[in-house]
Amino acid sequence: MRSEPETTALSVAVPAQVGGGDGMGRLASLVVRLQREIESAHTAAEGRAVIEMAKGLLMERLGCSAREASLQLGRLAEQAGLSPLEVAADLVGQAMPRAAAEGLAGEEASRLRSAENAALAAHDCEAVADSLLRHALAPLGAVAVALWAALPDSSLALAGTAGITEQECHRWRHVPPRLLTPARLALSRRQALHLSRLGDVGAASIAETELADHGRVAVPARVHGRTVGVLEIVWGADPPPETPALARQLESLGEVAAHALDLHEPLPTASLEAVYPQLRELSDLADGLDSAALVLAPAVNADGVLTDFRIHHVNPHFADPGGRPRAALTGRGLLEAYPLAAAPAGLFDAVEHVYATGEPFRAPLQLSALVDALEIHSRARASLSRHGACVLLVWRTEAESDRLANLLQHAQRLGRIAGFEEDFRTGEVTWNEPLFDLYGLTPGEDKLVHLEDIGSYVHGDDHHAVHRFLRTLLRHHRPAAAAFRLERADQVTRYIRVIAEPVLGPAGTLDGVRGAYQDISAQHWTEVALAATREQLAHTEAEARERNRLALRLQQAIMTPTRRAAALPGLQVAVRYRPAEQEHLVGGDWYDTLPLPGGRVLLSVGDVAGHGIEAATGMVALRNALRGLAATGAGPGQLLTWLNSVSLHLTDEVTATAVCAVFDPGTRELRWARAGHLPPVLVRDHAASPLPLGRGLLLGAVPEAEYEEQSVILQSGDTLLMFTDGLVERRDTALEAALNELLTHLPHDAPVDQLVDRLLVRSRSDTDDDTCLIAVSIS
């Protein structure tokens, strides 16, 4: 059964509004007109295509020109007394066999015609199933066939079989609505269903034991747009491949099965009641109902396509929202009478679904009538069911009092609210059903608790709040409320809020009380959980702040705020460290300028991955290790190799980039190596360019990393820049492009102190990362 719990909008308009002020009506009229124009254009195009094909055939057979073929076609049409299009269609039809026009090969078309002829001559569905299997499906590899008829109650009835035992047919003669079968799935989806075996969708079906591993296909059996059943085919060991040709054959066989299953096939020239004998019975049934009802019959065009539903009968209880009499609706199309019912998920969609599948439909509907540009709404619960080929539409308007009572019940359920009333004059206590559940009692018990006695159910710590509530209510005759823990006899504790008001008599006497209980247990435990979460979050934030402060102090202790490096032989050096603006982003950037034994100078910058205390401690470990290793006199490449081992074995999985350089003032030779870091930049003769990139992975990546060492002879007046990526890194630009942009506007003639300050000011970095910068000028 198709059930729609939510309200579906059904818009209704009187015809006068459809083409006038109503926007939806104007749109519907425009769509109809455009559809007619498109159909006319398609017809004309198809006619021209047929005429051109006929002219081509004449040109081929007669060996004439296109003009002569056109003249010959005109003469044939004049002699036959037909239009050129009719003559062209005859010529093309003679040249193209029917099977080819249907898109089937000759052998396939022959089998299909044999099956059709045998099916039409068959006296029952059993013979039809046998004909379909023997003439059309067995040559394709099928071993069994079942014909299922769709019943109005959404169940399936076995109408005919072939290749299946009598005992199995007896077991599956009727399939209830909720049983999942291939036929049910094909009927619901309204399209062919192919299965390699039943277990693929967890379905069951006839001959499931004997043919469990065989492939199956379920094809909806349609006639005039209405699905009357399903043709189920069981393949042999090798199912045929799913091709367009096979799909066309199965669709044609489904139509053959549909004609066999349909007991009331429409006759285009007969009256509605002659075509649909059930209409008279349905009309009598509708007149006997206490609710409004419409009897609808399908309207099918000449091509067998469903276009609308004809309103055959309107019962006396029906009231048109637009105020039209019943006689004005009878005989009109549903879309003609109510054009806005064609809205998505509206009335027409529901009727079409019921007509096509036979599944009943029940759901609330909102009826909207548009009269003189004013919308008139009413609510109803609609019920749709198919009877033969016709649909019965019944809707029951909800009384306002019933609707409000239903709304109140849902509100009480959602709010977990229970009501009570106590009459002090008679001693009678009235509870609604939820209150019994709240106290853990069975509805109908005589153990109702008087308001004065609720203290025996209250937790000891909450007695004072309950006594204050009772005193305000019973002694001072004022409304009161209280929250307490309710301890039931079954040892279950509930958190309760109670609110009540006094009922006073004419003389001001207290005649009774009424009020409500609300179960707030879920709210209470939610608040407890939130409080615990807030406390844990506050503790975590405090820890994070403390770790950030420690990381910042450690960073500041190593990267001192001094703006000038120690004096170094033959060099003028300026250093800058710019920390991240946000404390939690304190990173592991470092720089170092260190005199070495023999007069040489160590220059280095590095960047440890990550932020926080771990990055800061990793930076300290690598910087100090490099200082100690540099005292050995080893070159930059060897120093980075050792520093890589430190990252792997003497720290907690630290990875970092670095560039290490050793300058000899006597020879002015600079030797350097890099570990995944930006290369140094040399400023010479007012031009800035990065030094060549040498091979070298970042520190801590692999155990056996090699670092290529390179050298350059510096000249007097040269300036060397070494920095971390925080100086140039941008979210929207590649690192190399950002570096080139910065070097293009480098202030070449400035002293090193001014140079580093201007570089920091002109930096367009937007990642809020730490930045270390060294500028070295050669004397």
Automatic annotation (TrEMBL):
This chain's protein is named SpoIIE family protein phosphatase
Q: Which organism is it from?
A: Streptacidiphilus monticola
Does this entry carry the keyword Nucleus?
Answer: no
- The UniProt record lists the ANTAR domain at 31-92
Question: Which keywords fit this entry according to its UniProt record?
Answer: Hydrolase, Transcription, Transcription regulation
Q: Which lineage is the organism of this entry classified under, starting from the top rank?
A: Bacteria, Bacillati, Actinomycetota, Actinomycetes, Kitasatosporales
Q: Name one Pfam family in it.
A: PAS_3
Entries under InterPro entries matching the protein: ANTAR (IPR005561), Bact_Sigma-Reg (IPR052016), CheY-like_superfamily (IPR011006), GAF-like_dom_sf (IPR029016), PAS (IPR000014), PAS-like_dom_sf (IPR035965), PAS_fold_3 (IPR013655), PPM-type-like_dom_sf (IPR036457)
Q: Which residues form a coiled coil?
A: none
Quote the PANTHER family the UniProt record gives.
STAGE II SPORULATION PROTEIN E (PTHR43156:SF2), STAGE II SPORULATION PROTEIN E-RELATED (PTHR43156)
Q: Does the keyword Cell cycle apply?
A: no
Superkingdom, natural source: Bacteria
Annotated CDD domains: PAS (cd00130)
